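Researcher: Please predict.
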Amino acid sequence: MRKLGSEIFTAAKERKKLLSVILQWLIIGGVTAFCVNALFTLTTYKAFGVQNSTGSGDKGFIALSYFGVARESDEELIGVGLLRDHLQALKDRGYVTVTQEDVIQYYESGKSLPEKSLLLLFEDGRRDTAIFSQKILEKLNYKATMVTYAGNFSSKDTKFLQPHELQRLEKTSYWEMGTNGYRLSFINVFDMYNNYLGDLDPLQFSSVAPFVKRKYNHYLMDYIRDEHGIPRESYEGMKARISYDYETLRDRYKSSLGYIPALHVLMHANTGSFGNHDKVSAVNGYWIKELFRMNFNREGFCLNQRNSSLYDLTRMQPQPYWQTNHLLMRIQYDTGKGIGFVTGDTQKHGAWETLKGALEVKGEKLILTSLPLDKGLVRLKNSNDFKDVKATVRLKGNKLGMQKIYFRADEKLDRFIALSVFNNYLYITEKAGDKEQELLALDLARHDGKPVLSIPEHKKEAEVRELETFARYADTRRRGEVYGERLKDKLLENPLPIEAGAPEYVPELSVHASGDRLVALSLVGDKLTVAIDNKEAVRYLPVSASQSGSVYLETAWGNFGWSQRNIADDVYDGIYEQLTITENTGSHKEKVLFDSKFKGLEAFSATVNKGWEAIVNWFVRNL
């Protein structure tokens, strides 16, 4: 009996051991499969001719060019999640990628392209771009061009891809090569106070960029000039300088890749030809046509058709702050064809009537995209009898632009009370007759308590930064010491402040300036109270519009702001995060009229995912 019990115990122990081993192998197998999928390319790109294409004919093609890709969006690089959303939306709408050779044959031989053709580019040749976009391309069966600077092949900066890595990308079949030229460098640079800064490399330019507007040029676009605009080089000197770059580019690509890429992107775009001076343009034009088979000469619009030229192509550069419908809106505007917009959460989206623009509900965000040079407008359904309400929301659209909430509004918006954040100002307005009246205007920079500088004080800030930059990046020790001495003298200066009568410096908003404002509003009877970022903006402001009405959201473009980049963008994304609207009766249990926040398990899952992303992002940034 004891022996039988021992055998049963041993058998049970062996079964547990076997199950444990099986479980361990399953885990190891799962992790191995994940790693293999993440690190290796197991599929091959299939050209559109092998797929079921959406048709043929002279529909042209669109060209999109991203600066680069990171885990999270910043001012220059689009986040991998948003890039995935962009490209998935295009895939869902029937877009297929075409190759450089497809485009060349489209122009040279009259070859037809699919009805919805996309030439996809990533510029600057960044390593993180390849890492974060590779799996997206594989999943969508999209092919892209990696555009590089030949001069970066000898760079010690680890963010740039080297030739052996570019060759590995080509072997995956999802990439082909292009070039931005030999170098990224800037000439004839002036700051916003017309101080001449001369010639700057990318690190120097990035350091002083906050104090530079559009008065500069790229290395190949003009004569090198002095502070008076007089050329510092002869025609022969200019020609030799520019020719050197193309010759070196040619030799560097041939020795590193074995060939010169067919696709070239001229830096910078929209000069009208191949440069800002006719003789400079002629030199560039000769080399571009001598070395390359196609050239992007314009930027801002995406559609290319046969009435253009292989050497005068245009590309759209989606910015890191563009939401998916922003991209789709721009493509629709350029192509003149309806594209259909993403809607996101169907239940929450269904609570709103879209009157203008496009609405996407993504997580806890309502993203309202305006029409070009116009607005976006949605109305909360069944809100006709809303009167006394409380509302909280994070407004996360960019500072340059308008995000507006209407309360007690009638159907034609002839009567309402409205709160808007427009170009970093808070406005409270109402309309009870023919004209919208302004009840409050508040500069949110001052609300934040930021110091107000005079123009002389800001000019000193600019000149200090410039001297610091020249001292840090001086090419000789002696030159660095000279700039260091000038910096000491500059720091001792005491420019005239506002209090002494100097004019105030009013910063011009950048189109890239991100916004994040927590708004809390209480509307009861004829009084309105508003807090911005937990700081009271106005208490018990008298209002006249006392009738019940609906809630609307509106967004609008804020006109062109300052930008380092030569882009045209007249679409705006208003982002209303965690929008909550409740009754304002004073009771303990007030009715919730609308709430975009996560609830229950969804909220728990979002918190866990957010924490995990924060951990991963920390490791990516610090390791």
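Model: Confidence is low (pLDDT under 50) at residues 27-39, 50-55.
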